[in-house]
UniProtKB/TrEMBL annotation:
Gene3D superfamilies: 3.40.630.30, Structural Genomics, Unknown Function 30-nov-00 1gh9 Mol_id (3.90.820.10). Keywords: Acyltransferase, Transferase. InterPro entries: Acyl_CoA_acyltransferase, GNAT_dom, MbtH-like_dom, MbtH-like_sf, Ribosomal_N-acetyltransferase. This is GNAT family N-acetyltransferase. One of its GO terms (molecular function) is acyltransferase activity. It is an enzyme of class 2 (transferase). Residues 75-229 form the N-acetyltransferase domain. The keyword Transferase applies. It comes from Streptomyces pulveraceus. Its EC number is 2.3.1.-. Coiled coil: none annotated.
Length: 229
């Protein structure tokens, strides 16, 4: 049987029987032949199995100024630069594709805090805001970050997910990764996260990430969760 090499709009390649209708979203490359010769051709053409948007996002990120990047099984936690935070504060996308189209109100507030800290000269690289980028399609699904630089061996983390990304375990995965990174830093032994009493979803995220509820509340009356070494 003669086969054809086909390609989709994600620049992914596949083998397809010649003379049959192409699947939706795919087009012929013009290369036909035996099964093995077509497979060999695909191996030559497709050296990176990631979809095109993911490859582009990685290439663009490599051209940006150096930032902290953490990787979990399904997410990239990418540090936000102050100039990007200023864009996000105004509802911009910082050149990235967001699940749901634009940053949430909560994410914009966090970006504004980073922008103010940078303007006041108190922003410490690595201890600001991180975007949660889904590895499968390079879309931003939320944000997570610190309330400020560490103090007295402790750092506080806050987070927010876009509505469409909730309930999929992304927040738990990201919180576990960022908390683990935090506790690996010199002089730190505690990570704190807070939430309201009625925010059961956030409480679940913290508990699944290994945080324990403390008996005391903070000055604002919020529940306090803590993870220690």
């Amino acid at each position: 049987m003669t086969h054809a090499v086909i390609v989709n709009d994600q620049q992914q390649y596949a083998l397809w029987p010649s003379g049959t209708g192409l699947p939706e979203g795919w087009q012929a490359t013009g290369w036909t032949g035996g099964e093995q010769s077509c497979l060999d051709r695909i191996a030559e053409l497709w050296k990176d199995g990631r979809p095109a948007p993911v490859r582009r996002a990685v290439a663009e990120d490599s051209a940006r100024p150096a930032v902290q990047l953490l990787v979990s099984p399904r997410l990239w936690l990418r540090e936000v630069l102050p100039e990007e935070a200023a864009q996000i504060t105004e509802g911009g996308t910082a050149g990235l594709e967001w699940l749901g189209g634009v940053p949430s109100a909560e994410t914009r507030i966090a970006a504004k805090m980073l922008t103010r800290a940078a303007g006041a000269g108190v922003h410490v690289p690595g201890w600001g805001m991180y975007l949660l980028i889904r590895a499968e399609d390079a879309r931003v699904v939320g944000a997570m970050g610190f309330h400020g630089p560490p103090a007295d061996g402790s750092a506080e983390i806050g987070f927010d997910l876009t509505e469409k990304a909730r309930g999929l375990g992304y927040a738990t995965e990201a919180l576990g990764e960022l908390a683990s990174w935090t506790l690996r830093q010199s002089g730190l032994d505690t990570v704190v996260a807070t939430t309201t009493e009625d925010n059961v979803a956030s409480q679940g995220v913290m508990e699944r990430a290994g945080f324990e509820l403390r008996p005391e509340r903070n000055e604002e009356g919020l529940l306090v969760y803590r993870l220690t070494r």
